[in-house]
Structure formats: C-alpha cells, structure tokens
Amino acid sequence: MTATLTARWVVLDIEGTLTATSYVHVTLYDYARPRLGPWIDDHPDDPEVARALAEIKELGGLPADASTVDVVRVLHGWMDADQKIAPLKTLQGLIWQRGYAEGDLTTEFFGDVAPALRSWHESGLRLAVFSSGSVAGQIASFSRTTDGDVTGLFERHFDTVNAGPKREAPSYRAIASALDVEPGDIVFFSDVPAELDGAAADGWQTVGLARQGEPFGDADFGTHRTIRTFDEVKVVPR
Ligand SMILES: CSCCC(=O)C(=O)COP(=O)(O)O
Ligand SMILES: [Mg+2]
Predict the structure, then answer these.
(1) Cα–Cα distance between 73 and 27 in angstroms, integer?
(2) CA of 166, closest atom in ligand 1
(3) pLDDT tens, residue order, the chain (238 aa)
(4) Which of its termini does the chain have fewer beta carbons within 10 Å around, N or C?
(5) ipTM score assigned to the predicted complex
C-alpha cells in the first residue's frame, strides 16, 4: 500500500538512497583515489586544500611536514574503511567537481529517483540534500546524471561541515533551523537507520530506503516507515 505523507521539505541522503552504494564506493572512489596526491601537489595555494591538509595530518597523527605520499596513505586507509571524514570528503568533492565538468563522470540514479524528484518539485515541495559528500561534490554530481542536470530541483545542500554528523540529532536541528520550518514539516529519506534515528530524535518525519541488493536492504529499520523504492510513498505539500 502507498503511504501518504504531508510535508514542506523533502531532505534526501545520496548513497543507497538516490544512487547505488557501488556508484560511490567503486566509480567515485576509484576516480578520486589516484587523483588525491596530484590534486594536493597542484593546489599548494588553495586555502580550502591547505585547511583540509592540516586537518588530515592532525586526525591521521602525521607531523605538520608529512609528505603527500604519507597523507595519501592516510586518505586511502580512510576510503578503504569507508570513513567519511570531512577533509577527505572536501578533497574528493573538488576532484569529482572537475571530473563531472570534464565529462568523465555521470551520476547513475536508481530508476525511480528522477521521476519522484521531478514530481515532488512540481507539486510545490522543496528539496534539499543531507549527505556526507561535500556540498561541492553533491552539486557537481547532480549537474550530470543519466536523467540530465537536476541541480535546479534542489534549493539547499547540507554536509557534515555545514550541518554536522549524520547520526546526531543536533545536525537535524541545525538543518531545520536553516530551512526555517518546524522539524515535523520535513521528511528525511535515508538508507541508514542510525541517520533516521538522529532525524526522528529532532522530530522529523523519516522514511527508510531498504533497496534490494544494497548494504541496508535487509536492515532493521525499527519504527521508521520503510520502502523499497520511491514508488511506494506519496509526499504532498502541506
Ligand atoms: C558526489 S556526492 C558523493 C556521495 C559521497 O561521497 C558519500 O559519502 C555519500 O554519503 P551519504 O551520506 O550520501 O550516504
Ligand atoms: Mg546513505
């Protein structure tokens, strides 16, 4: 049976919700991996890169004068363990931004995603993203998809830098406040039950994506409403 929810904003996770986990972990990570070192060496005067480098060295227990090779070893270790650490996501986002601009990358959404996004947008619902992927990476990844450029559908982008960790209620409070609505006016879609717990703790409506073949496809979503595809839910503007 199709569930009907009323809301003002729809906030969406990316990996496992809009795209297959393998698109991020294989296609995007494999694209970033060999480019991290050259990106660091080619951007010595970029303050964003310098800030990320300083954070990586601190978090990775490296000395301030550590070589790019040492830094890249730390970054590859984080990627292998899928640790979504903010300065790594910053560098990946910059690399992906160029990859999309140059036509090397095209985001592959699940088949039900683009029709749902377009119909929500047309109905007057407002769309935002909350992902561990950096805001720059999010926007780039929406600019070139198998369903065209969908950047215009999204009004706001949140990541772990401008909102906070995805499993913590205060991050959701910060987003609700930035959107200037009551938490109950927002519905959050994610494949990770712990993220839905964080959102629900702040009073958001939550929907779990238990997509077949995905890492959380058979997960226990507890009391969260759970769907297999967006075809199983109707969201109408309040
Ligand atoms: C181009 S954004 C790539 C998404 C990404 O890097 C990522 O880590 C996805 O994490 P999410 O929080 O969306 O599951
Ligand atoms: Mg996810």
Answers:
(1) 20
(2) 12
(3) 688 999 999 999 999 999 999 999 999 999 999 999 999 999 999 999 999 999 999 999 999 999 999 999 999 999 999 999 999 999 999 999 999 999 999 999 999 999 999 999 999 999 999 999 999 999 999 999 999 999 999 999 999 999 999 999 999 999 999 999 999 999 999 999 999 999 999 999 999 999 999 999 999 999 999 999 999 999 999 9
(4) N
(5) 0.98
Residue nearest to atom 10 of ligand 1 (CA): 132
| DSSP tag of 28 | I
Enter the tokens of residue 174: 């910060």
Q: How far is the CA of 44 from the centre of ligand 2 (A)?
A: 32
Question: pTM for this one?
Answer: 0.97
Contacts with 238 (C-beta within 8 Å, 6 or more apart), sequence order: 6, 7, 8, 185
